[in-house]
C-alpha cells in the first residue's frame, strides 16, 4: 500500500521545479512517516483477527472486531446471568413449594465436614464449632439441557430464588453463616437436576455435660439437625479431657499443701506460733484453691471428682491443725499434773525435763520413745519402776481391762507421741487415699 503511494507521488512531481520538488518530497516523506505505522497496524491486524468464541452455549454471538473485546465481555457476563435464570427456568416455577409437592417425601442427603471445634465451655455447657453443611437433593424443575453434562455453580444470590431444605440446628444458642467477603454459600446444579448446596456455618450448641467425674471425664456432645419433616440427625462428638492441665493447676498444688501441713509434726510442739501459722496458712491456701476451681465450673448439684479430692485434702490439712491443738492441750494437761505431783521424790530427771518441756522431742525419742512405740506395756513398767510404788498396780489393771484404752491413755499422757504417730499415719493415710482415688477415676 505504501509502495503504491510512493510510485504515484513520483509520477506527479515529475514536472515541477526542483525546489518545489524538494519541499514536496520532504512534506510527502513526513506524511509517509506518519502514515507508515497506521498502515502497518491495519495490514497486520486483518490476518491475525481472532474468532472470539462465545463462552456460553456457543450460539450466534461471534465477535467481529478485536478492538471491542472488553466491552463485549462485560455484555456477555450480563447476558449470562439472565441466561442462567432463563436456563434454570426460575420464573416458570413456584419455588416456595418443595420439588414434587403433594407427592412422596423428598430424600435430602446431608453431610457435615467439621472445620474446627472453636471452644467448649463448661460453665455455659455448650460448644462452638465451624462446619461445612452440605445438602444433596434433586429438583427436576432446575434440570437444564447440556451437551457436555457439566454442572453449574452459583452463589447466594440464586439460592434466595429457589427452594432449599429447611434444616436447622436443634439446641443451638447462636449460629451464623459466614459472610466475608461474600456469603459462604455454594450451589451446584447438575444438568439432571441434582443439586449440591453447601454452607459454611459457625454454630454454638447446647451440650448437657455430666461432671460427676470431672476433670477425668468424657463428654458426649451431640449436634442435632432437624427439618420440618421432623426427621432428626444426630452427630455425636465424644470429647475426652486432657488431665495434664488440671494436674498442674489443681492436683499438684493441693498435694504440696497437704505435704506442707505435715511439716508441722516435725516442729517442736512448744513452738506455738510456728505451728499455728503453718496450719492456718495451709488451710487458707486450700480454701483458695477450692474457690478457684469452683469459680470456673457450673454449679451442679452433684459431687465432682475434683471436689472429692479437694475436700479430702482440705480435711487432711484441717486435721493436722486439730492434731496440733490436741498436742498442745495434752501438753498443758501434763504440765498441770506434773505441778500437782511436784512433791514426788523419785522422779527421773530426764523425764521431768521432758515434761517440763526443756527437751526437744528428738531427745526424748533417744531415751524412752522407741520402746514406748514398740511395746508400751514394758515402757509403762519401766516408767512405773522409776516413779511411785502405786503405779505398777494401776498399769496392770489398765492392761487387763482394755489394751486399746491403755494405749490411748498412755499416748495422751505423753503428748509428744501424738506427733510421732502423726508423722507416719498422715502420709500413709494420704497415700492410701490417693491410691483409692486414682484407681477409682483414672
Ligand atoms: C451426568 O453427570 C452426573 C454426575 O456428574 C451423572 O450422575 C450422570 O449419569 C451424567 N449423565 C450423563 C447423561 O452422562
Ligand atoms: C452419646 O449419646 C447418644 C445419645 O445422645 C448415644 O446414642 C450414644 O451412644 C452416646 N455415645 C457414647 C459413646 O456414649
Automatic annotation (TrEMBL):
Family of the protein in this entry: Belongs to the ligand-gated ion channel (TC 1.A.9) family.
Domain Neurotransmitter-gated ion-channel ligand-binding intervals: 90-241
Annotated region (Disordered), positions in chain: 370-398
Organism the protein comes from: Scomber scombrus
Protein name according to UniProt: Gamma-aminobutyric acid receptor subunit rho-3-like isoform X3
Pfam families associated with the record: Neur_chan_LBD (PF02931), Neur_chan_memb (PF02932)
One term under GO cellular component: postsynaptic membrane
Superkingdom, natural source: Eukaryota
Catalytic activity as recorded in UniProt: chloride(in) = chloride(out)
InterPro entries for the chain: GABAA/Glycine_rcpt, Neur_chan_lig-bd, Neur_chan_lig-bd_sf, Neur_channel, Neuro-gated_channel_TM_sf, Neuro_actylchol_rec, Neurotrans-gated_channel_TM, Neurotransmitter_ion_chnl_CS
All copies of domain Neurotransmitter-gated ion-channel transmembrane, residue ranges: 250-354
Amino acid at each position: 500500500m505504501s509502495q503504491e503511494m510512493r510510485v504515484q507521488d513520483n509520477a506527479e512531481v515529475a514536472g515541477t521545479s526542483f525546489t518545489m520538488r524538494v519541499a514536496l518530497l520532504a512534506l510527502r516523506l513526513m506524511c509517509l512517516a506518519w502514515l507508515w505505522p497506521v498502515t502497518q497496524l491495519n495490514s497486520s491486524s486483518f490476518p491475525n483477527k481472532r474468532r472470539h468464541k462465545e463462552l456460553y452455549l456457543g450460539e450466534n454471538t461471534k465477535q467481529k472486531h478485536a478492538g471491542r473485546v472488553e466491552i463485549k465481555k462485560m455484555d456477555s457476563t450480563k447476558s449470562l446471568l439472565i441466561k442462567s435464570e432463563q436456563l434454570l427456568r426460575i420464573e416458570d416455577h413456584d419455588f416456595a413449594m418443595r420439588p414434587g409437592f403433594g407427592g412422596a417425601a423428598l430424600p435430602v442427603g446431608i453431610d457435615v465436614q467439621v472445620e474446627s471445634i472453636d471452644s467448649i465451655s463448661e460453665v455455659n455447657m455448650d460448644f462452638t464449632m465451624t462446619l461445612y453443611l452440605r445438602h444433596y437433593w434433586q429438583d427436576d424443575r432446575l434440570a437444564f439441557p447440556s451437551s457436555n453434562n457439566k454442572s453449574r455453580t452459583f452463589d447466594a444470590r440464586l439460592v434466595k430464588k429457589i427452594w432449599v431444605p429447611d434444616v436447622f440446628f436443634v439446641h443451638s444458642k447462636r449460629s451464623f453463616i459466614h459472610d466475608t467477603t461474600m456469603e459462604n454459600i455454594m450451589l451446584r446444579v447438575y444438568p439432571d437436576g441434582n443439586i449440591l448446596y453447601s454452607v459454611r456455618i459457625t454454630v454454638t450448641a447446647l451440650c448437657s455435660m455430666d461432671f460427676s467425674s470431672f476433670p477425668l471425664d468424657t463428654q458426649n456432645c451431640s449436634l442435632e439437625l432437624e427439618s420440618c419433616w421432623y426427621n432428626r440427625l444426630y452427630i455425636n462428638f465424644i470429647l475426652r479431657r486432657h488431665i495434664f492441665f488440671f494436674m498442674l493447676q489443681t492436683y499438684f498444688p493441693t498435694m504440696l499443701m497437704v505435704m506442707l501441713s505435715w511439716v508441722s509434726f516435725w516442729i517442736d510442739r512448744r513452738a506455738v506460733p510456728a505451728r499455728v501459722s503453718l496450719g492456718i496458712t495451709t488451710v487458707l491456701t486450700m480454701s483458695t484453691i477450692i474457690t478457684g476451681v469452683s469459680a470456673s465450673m457450673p454449679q451442679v448439684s452433684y459431687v465432682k471428682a475434683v471436689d472429692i479430692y479437694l475436700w479430702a485434702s482440705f480435711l487432711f490439712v484441717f486435721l493436722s491443725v486439730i492434731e496440733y491443738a490436741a498436742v498442745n492441750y495434752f501438753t498443758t494437761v501434763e504440765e498441770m499434773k506434773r505441778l500437782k505431783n511436784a512433791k514426788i521424790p523419785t522422779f527421773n530427771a530426764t523425764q521431768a525435763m521432758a515434761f517440763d518441756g526443756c527437751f526437744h522431742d528428738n531427745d526424748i525419742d533417744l531415751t524412752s520413745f522407741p520402746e514406748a512405740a514398740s511395746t508400751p506395756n514394758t515402757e509403762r513398767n519401766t516408767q512405773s519402776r522409776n516413779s511411785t510404788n502405786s503405779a505398777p498396780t494401776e498399769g496392770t489393771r489398765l492392761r487387763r481391762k482394755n489394751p486399746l484404752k491403755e494405749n490411748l491413755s498412755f499416748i495422751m499422757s505423753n503428748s509428744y507421741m501424738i506427733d510421732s504417730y502423726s508423722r507416719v499415719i498422715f502420709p500413709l493415710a494420704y497415700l492410701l487415699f490417693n491410691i483409692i482415688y486414682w484407681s477409682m477415676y483414672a
